[in-house]
Amino acid sequence: MTKRKMITSPDPPPPPPPMGRRRRSPRFQHLDGGVDQHVSVTKRSSSSRSGMDFSMYAYKPDHEDITSLSAEDPKKTLLEKVDAPKTPSPQKEEEKKKKEVVKRKKSTPRRTRIVPGSLKPPADWMDVYSLVEELRADRSAPVDSDGAAAVIERDRGMKVFRFQVLIALMLSSQTKDAVVGDAMRKLQKHGLDVENIRATSDKELNDLIYSVGFRNNKTKFIKQSAEIMLSDYNGDIPPTAEKLMELPGVGPKMAYIVEHIAWGNVSGIGVDVHMHRMFNQLKWVDSTASTPEKTREQLEGWLPKEKWGEINTLWVGLGQEVQQQKEKVLLKAIKSSRPKDAIKLLKRLGMNCKSVAKKYGLESLLEDAMSKEN
Questions:
Q1: Per-residue pLDDT tens for 4-22?
Q2: In this predicted model, what pLDDT tens digit does every residue of 174-209 receive, in sequence order?
Q3: Residue 228: CB partners within 8 Å, gap ≥ 6?
Q4: Residue 253 among the catalytic residues
Q5: Using CA atoms, how far apart are residues 90 and 77, in angstroms rounded to an integer?
Q6: What DSSP designation does 353 have?
Q7: For helices 311-324 and 326-334, what crossing angle results, to 10°?
């Protein structure tokens, strides 16, 4: 009987090397009382069944042996080396701030002031300006009946007159002229002079100007200005626009208008939001005129100085009529000496003349005016 040869199975593959525990971060070594004793991978014996050498998996530190550091010496602890805050010296901080200020100054170009008379005027400005003078000849806009020059008591002496001009302009900010007129009449009935306003309580003054915008701030500014005028100007208002701008709540627009009405002097143009909008629509200023103050500077760059005093009332009134009295201003344009040009001007200022004519039954008059030659 033939013996069968016994087939033996091959040796099983060697097991993978056991994974050692990961080394703790140095800052957590105190939890184990030093170096983790189980961090290194156990080196398998070279006499293993497979004959493979796993010494390549053994842990080899790539930095100094932290067991040699003394935990009692704070200068040598690794924890201090890792976590020690880096506090810059005061001198370095000061130098850094100075460098930032210099850098900021270099990156922000200085704005060049526009010299009056140095700019070239728009080609059509004289024709448009004369047309506006004609449209505003009736002086029937809200600014003509309730503006700063219209609501003043002229029979109480020049000091009271000038003080009331200033108060009217201070109340006019962000407030319609009709509301300013009502508030001024209440104040005049109460007694609108610098001594009486100083003696009036804040609450009572606030109630008297209750209808105007930002009344709380205006109450504070008026009271503070009254004190300054009594202590520094003998109860009168400052004599120049520059000094007027030192009063609380008084900006360039107010200062130039007050200077013109109260003192009869003109050193600048008072530009409000109406004028700022219209002169940008007419392209009388360039795109850099993003605020009324920048519009003022550009206007002064080319507009003849004899026009500076009158331009505010003239153009503010036109802007009010275009916004609030459309029927009236369209009729005036149709009946003007140059109806075609006047209607085109209203269109340039944002007025839809056809829509207004349709609303008020002026379509035939508008068509006739547009068909005529100027």
A1: 555 555 666 667 666 655 5
A2: 899 999 999 999 999 999 999 999 999 999 999 999
A3: 247
A4: yes
A5: 27
A6: H
A7: 110
Task: Identify the burial level of 221 via C-beta atoms within 10 angstroms of its C-beta, where 0-12 means exposed, 13-18 middle and 19 or more buried.
Answer: middle
All residues at 6 or more sequence positions from 238 whose CB lies less than 8 Å from its CB, including other chains: 229, 244, 246, 247
Tokens of 195: 């001594």
State both tokens at 137. Answer: 């000849």
Q: How far apart are the first and last CA of the chain?
A: 139
Of the candidates 334, 338, 336, 321, the one whose C-alpha atom is nearest the C-alpha of residue 362 is 334
Catalytic pick among 253, 328, 347, 358: 253
* Residue for token pair 């270099």: 106
**Model confidence pTM above 0.85:** no
What is the SS3 assignment for 12?
coil
Which residues are CB-contacts of 13 (< 8 A; sequence separation ≥ 6)? 50
Q: What are phi and psi of 24, to 5 degrees?
A: -70, 150
